[in-house]
Amino acid sequence: MTDKLRVGDYMTGKVITVSPDDTVMDVIKLTRETGHDGFPVTKEKKVEGYISSLDMLLCESDELVKNVMSKNLIVAHPNMEINEVARVIFRLGVSKLPVVDDKGNLVGIITNSDVIRSQIERADPQKVWKLKKTLETLHNVSITVARGEVDIDDLVPTQGKVFADELEGRIYELKKGLAEPLIVIHKPGRWLLADGHHRVVAAKRLGMQKVDAYILEIPKDIPLGMEKSSRDAGLKTLDDIQVLDYAKHPLIEITERLLMKDRKGTSPEELERRGMESD
């Protein structure tokens, strides 16, 4: 769990490429079909360049890709740390980097969205270790942590409500491949969902049967506080979770509150403060 995150874990393996002998019009058509704003240029799996929408500006439509593509490329390696590639992307001001293996063959592409996804998913281990330590201290028990898939239908929720707007966001994330793990407590005969209720309800709505999770293994059937709260609230399966479609998730409320504040204009005091900061 403490291993460093690598490019190979988050890159997209199936990459759409173009040939040096394609024309600008070929790439424009591909851009319309895929929505991508740039493509690695390859010949026999070797990366020879990269062509973006900017490279094609003011070019004739029958111009060959090899004449307008960028040849001075920075590429990543699958074993490169995510933090390192994040620095490279930030410094170069680009949105993606081709990923090549030791032989120089294209094996994937890593984007700024992949980097963001990796940072969201890595936030969970901190929660895991904090919960592990808390449970061990409270119940004087040794807990092991494993990573694996859990069956959604086996999970007993410990939270009775989720927000509809946040649920829509989680469905979108899952469709885009954001596999933020759940945190599950496994004790004899029971699987308690400790964290990730929006995620798992979203997964269920998408028809998924199993979800990636950090699993805290408790060897004894000790009574847990969250288990009692769940039982008192009548929570037995995920179907018992209520979806609140009339209330907004706190994160959405904060966002809208900030936007409304911005719409009302900025006070003279705030402008002065910003001015001093800019100095």
UniProtKB/TrEMBL annotation:
CDD domains in the cross-refs: CBS_pair_ParBc_assoc
GO BP terms, alphabetized: methionine biosynthetic process
Keyword Repressor in annotation: no
Pfam families the UniProt entry points to: CBS (PF00571)
Listed SUPFAM superfamilies: CBS-domain pair (SSF54631), ParB/Sulfiredoxin (SSF110849)
Keywords per UniProt: Amino-acid biosynthesis, CBS domain, Methionine biosynthesis
Listed name of the protein: CBS domain-containing protein
Positions of the CBS domain: 11-67, 69-125
Keyword Amino-acid biosynthesis: yes
Organism superkingdom: Archaea
